[in-house]
Structure formats: structure tokens, C-alpha cells
Amino acid sequence: MVCGIGIQGNWFDCRFQWCVGDERCIKFWDDRWVDDQALKDKFPRLHSISQNKDSLVGEWDDSRTSRYIMWNLSWRREKFEWEKHLEEQMLAMISNVKWDVRKEDKLVWVGEDHQDYTVKSGYSILNGESLLQTSNILKLVWSLNVAPSALVGAWRLLLDRMPTRFNLARRGVQLGNL
What we know:
With 178 residues, this protein is mainly α. The protein folds into 2 domains: 13-109, no CATH class; 119-170, no CATH class. 40% of the residues lie in helices and 4% in strands. It is built from 7 helices and 2 strands. Helix 5 runs antiparallel to helix 6 (148-158). The longest helix has 25 residues, at 119-143. It starts with 15 loop residues before the first strand and ends in an 8-residue tail after the last helix. The relative contact order is 0.13.
């Protein structure tokens, strides 16, 4: 799976984050707009007692006419004391988010310095992650106490460098009928 959940996780989706603008598109709990995680994942207890799990950010913001943001959070029940501390922590995180209500909400790529996705940036991230995982496996292989020919064979196998018919054909090597 390239973009799905596989060995490298959901590498593509977790490189996008919402940049808040007019608050019309971003789901308060479900979308990644505050930090590197959705609020429902960062504060699962608060999400579980929330009354409006599917609401947009703009539905919770009561400060459209004010200079300061006032959040109208509604709960299914009274919060316990420790949940009040979670709420304060969440509101502190939200207060650090900067947005411009004159612009539309925008999904931005956080994989590179720029905010637009390019195939090159996606490829470099995917390739870099796979190399990192492979390097850990290769370190393990080279640390084994086995014959050097077995180490080289395992190393070539892991890097897909064995002279199989497919690899030879991919490199343009012509094989006769065997």
C-alpha cells in the first residue's frame, strides 16, 4: 500500500494539515488543524464527552465580533476536575493557532519548506522513510555472526539486488531461452 496504512503508516495523509481561515471546512475534532494530531486523538476523553463531535471550528467560535477568541464548548455532562485541566490544556493549544478569517480554510502540505505538494517532495519523504527502516534492518543483518557470503546474500536480497530474471530484464540484460 503506497498511500494507505502499511509498513510506513499513513505517510501521505499525515503530511497534510489545515490552515485555518474562515472556519467553514475544518472539523473541530476530526481534522488536523491545531498540531500534528487531530484533537479527538490528542484529547480522547474530552472528545468522548463532547456534545458536538461532528461540528466545524466555526460552530464553536463565539468571537466573530470580538478581538479575542471565545470558545463555546458543550459537554454531555459536567466535567471532572482532571477533565477541566485537559480542557485548559486544549484551549491553550488552540490559542496558539493563527488564522485569518478573510481567507478560506486551506489544506497545506507540511512535508517540505513550501506548502504545496509536489511529487518530488512526496517521493523524497517516502524514499527517506523506507531507507531509514531498511538501514535498521541492514544494521541487524551485518551484526549477525554468520558467514560473510550469507551476509552478502541477505544484504542483496533486502535491497532487491539479486540477479533474478526480473531484475536482469529491468537492467536491460538479455537472457537466452533457458
